[in-house]
Amino acid sequence: MALDLQMPVLVVDDYKTMIRIIRNLLKQLGFEDVDDAADGTEALEKMKQRKYGLVISDWNMEPMTGYELLKQVRADAGLCKTPFIMVTAESKTENVIAAKKAGVNNYIVKPFNAQTLKGKIDAVFSE
Amino acid sequence: MAAIQKENVARLIEFLEESRARKDDVTLNDVMGLAEVMARSMKDYIDAVQPAVTQELMEISDEICRMKQEIVQLRATDIKENRIPEAGRELDAIVEATESATHTIMEAAETIMSADPDDADTYQVVVQHKIMEIFEACAFQDITGQRISKVVGTLNYIDERVNSFVKRLRMDEVEDAPLEETAEEKRRRELILHGPQHEGEGVSQEDVDAMLEVFAQDDIDKLFG
């Protein structure tokens, strides 16, 4: 899978500030087309309407968490191949294992920096 | 054998009628009040029958009086009506202040990011102006620090009173009743929602990277039986 800076990226987080931070970091990394959603339900609706090249999602959101979103995406034949990075403050071992088991492509622990985000995006697209 | 005195029976009837007239749920205070009236009403009768029982009843009555004093010392009404709502207002103000400061800082940073460095003079003015705004916005830390101290003060106040109440009533010798899991707790358990961990408690980014590299799907499946 090649990294395409023109591809649409979906950022899912219930904190507008975090969306703004990730959006700015992605902009700095060269991504132009960044969309956002406030929780898993909204993200899933958007993903069914538009093909995103990458999803970057928080875990702890209501009503649908990022973990539930990940499982639904992987269970949907049309969406299951979408690269998915979890960006979250949930840093217990069981969270990382559950995310990996559910099919996450990478996992970033908050707080994070631009270098970590870039490194994980690069890693996902070099798989 | 001494009979229960008329005035004591009248006091008991008066108490029960008062309680019924209120039509409210029976409170702990009502139960203690009833026990007190009963103990006094029965005193003369039981005095004549068995002095040891009288002594025990008097001790029960004293204990009830002491419990009432402890409840008064707990200042539950003050905690419920003043201190907890005030702490809530402080926390709301902290959220607002941090949101506002973050917004100001991010806006300044975005303005700097989008400024044209080729126009050196304008760029310098914009950067200096926005950096001043960032410094000013950081003043929120002082105010929020003071607000957090007030909330911590309230928590300590409640902690002291509840602890003292528990000790004086010797409730620390009693095992806690099992807690039923709430719908929210169930959701948090099922969706693995722990929230942010303290320094040194969660896994670091390096740990996560190592786990993602090491754990093949088979290893993970084994962990889940």
UniProtKB/TrEMBL annotation, chain A:
GO biological process: phosphorelay signal transduction system
Transmembrane segments: none
UniProtKB keywords: Phosphoprotein
Residues annotated with 4-aspartylphosphate modification: 58
Keyword field contains Coiled coil: no
Domain Response regulatory: 8-125
Protein name, per record: Response regulator
Biological source species: Stappia sediminis
